[in-house]
Amino acid sequence: MKIKFDFVTNSSSTCFVLISEGDFNLKKFMKSVGVEDKSIFADIYKNLFNAFKNNLEPIRIFVDGDRWNNRGDFNDFIVDIFSEETLEKIIEAEKAGKNVYAGRLHSDNDVIECFFCTDSFIIETEDLFIDATNDRW
Question: What is the pTM of this model?
């Protein structure tokens, strides 16, 4: 048997959909996740906010250019990697003029982004919806 002592990595990503009433900003995000500035967890969630913010792309552009989109159809792609409910939220948000984005969190970035990349989650408030249930671990 051989045991490898060198660095070994297997990078992964979590695709997300983000719908925001107005601008996606730190204040709105922190309120949505229920973390106050004085919390010991504030820096963690500020880092997560930056990971989302730095990886946003308008959703239609994201889907058109996504390497995993071999279906060609926007609706089929969203239902396949998220859910029918998320597709409905996207279509409703677009009709209402909300900002709708998609992007990826990556495990090979910083440790906080890696941590959240290993989980599936939804954040949903009146002003913000994030579906990060497409976990590719």
Answer: 0.86
Please write the tens of the pLDDT for every residue from 70-129.
Answer: 767 899 999 988 999 999 999 999 999 999 999 988 888 788 888 887 778 899 999 999
The set of residues, in sequence order, having a beta carbon less than 8 Å from that of 29 and lying 6+ positions away, is: 45, 49, 52, 128
- Spatial separation of the C-alpha atoms in residues 12 and 135, rounded to whole Å: 8
SS3 call for 13 = strand
Asked if 28 and 134 count as a contact pair (C-beta separation under 8 A), the reply is no
Structure tokens at 65: 């250019």
Q: Cα 37 vs. chain centroid, distance in angstroms?
A: 22
